Amino acid sequence: MTTAPASSATTIVPEYGDRVIAVETAGSEPIPDAERHGSPLQLLWTWASPNIEFATVYIGVISVLFFGLDFWQATAAILLGTVLGALTQGVLSLDGPRFGVPQMVIGRFSFGFLGNILPSGVNGLVAGVGWFAVNSVSAAFALNTLTGLRPLPSLLLVVAAEILIGFIGHNFVHVFEKYAFPALAVVFLLAGVWTFKDAHLGGGGSGGGVGGFLLAVSTAWGYAAGWNPYAADYSRYLPRTANRFRTVLFPALGLFLSVAVVAVIGAASATIVAPKDATPTAAFTGHLPGWLGDLVLLAIILGAISANALNIYSGAISITALGLKLPAWLGRSTLVVVSGVAGTAAAWASLLDAGSAYEAFLLIIAYWVAPWLGVILVERWLQSRTATGEELAWRLGDRSYTNWPGLAALLIGVAVSVPLFSNQEKYVGWVPEHYPSFGDITPLVGFVVSAGLYAALRRLTPGAAPVPAAPETAR
């Protein structure tokens, strides 16, 4: 008689693994090695597809029509803001395979377990409600223009598809983005060629000056960096041995190329006169031949669904990252539905004034992401100099772990930024009110203040962020 090898008796059969048509059960807990799969290449289309959509087009549109830049000034601002946001997207994606947890869970290093509730909660609202509403509105307008269906039924059809993809989970999201990518790229490139043929690249601009340029940079950066709080959500299933260079390169490249190309097409389209009563999507497609205009409207719908698949998924994941002891039935998939309902209500409320609402929303994202990112990046730098991988992994799940300098630096960075707020309908800060030529330097100031303050506080108060000793069972 022979006995089976011990390894066969202990083989782990993944419950989720690389299955596509299966509802993901994982929330904010670490992904075990047996569940790890995929390659960094999938991050290319996962971060490209969501940005080949109308919300990205509108970055270029508002740079010309709202901020007063000409086409070439808008293009320079878009490229500068986008490349900065894309670089940090690649860097943060590295922590997915390293720790196997979502991006907002990794924030516990910087803010402590309880302190991290604030940025996680904000990101849950911004992603699952704010961004979900913005993209759903553009898709609803596109469906309305294409079919004549009224805006509200159009909105409900779109959000149903978005919620379904997010409900199924991680693997299905990646596959959906993979197959959406070529269709979106081909249609928008065709629209771009036609748009540049009719555009007046030497025209546009109403004297935006330095202020308008900085507003456009902040808007482009806010859009690109707005994905940063999701970065590790889509790399956390990668094996620990995933190539580091490719894990940085592919998300950064996918994000930069998609945002830059599509937003520049939007800037070109803004130099073409559109009917005054046209919806935003109808204005963008009005100069196109009928067959291409219809394809673009379909692509706008598909692109919005691609973007919101990530928004609603990461919004729900951010809520699980709060570390609250929720009932078993209120897991990630249920939270997707809850976020979808809230986001649908917000989208419905903004249907009548989508343009100005989107402009304000983009800037608000930049206002909170910049200070958050400043703290996060400094903490990554400090980790590379101090703590071991074992200590860091233990710190993620320690509910008693505190790091008050991180939360203090975040809040002070936001507070210092308030007098710099610009281009908001209900509030304009003291600086842009008295010196409008400054434009919007809120993100830059918020980032510098929070990063510098956190580095100083951590250096002056090393006891504020102790590394707890791992128990024997964890060693």
Task: Indicate the proportion of strand residues.
Answer: under 5%
Q: Level of helix content? A: 55-70%
Rg calc: 22 Å
Number of domains: 1
Number of strands: 0
Oligomeric state of this protein: single chain
SSE order, one letter for each helix or strand: HHHHHHHHHHHHHHHHHHHH
Number of helices: 20
- Structure class: mainly alpha
CATH superfamily: Hydantoin permease
Strand count, sense and barrel status of the largest sheet are:
none
Overall 3D form: globular
CATH architecture tag: Orthogonal Bundle
Q: And the CATH topology?
A: Hydantoin permease
Low-confidence stretches: 1-13, 467-475
Structure description:
- It is a single chain.
- With 475 residues, this protein is mainly α.
- The protein has one domain (37-465): Hydantoin permease.
- The protein contains 20 helices and no strands.
- The protein has helices spanning 6-9, 42-48, 54-65, 71-93, 95-99, 103-106, 108-111, 117-147, 151-168, 170-198, 209-225, 244-269, 280-285, 290-320, 332-349, 354-383, 389-396, 404-417, 430-434, 442-460.
- The radius of gyration is 22 Å and the shape is globular.
- It starts with 5 loop residues before the first helix and ends in a 15-residue tail after the last helix.
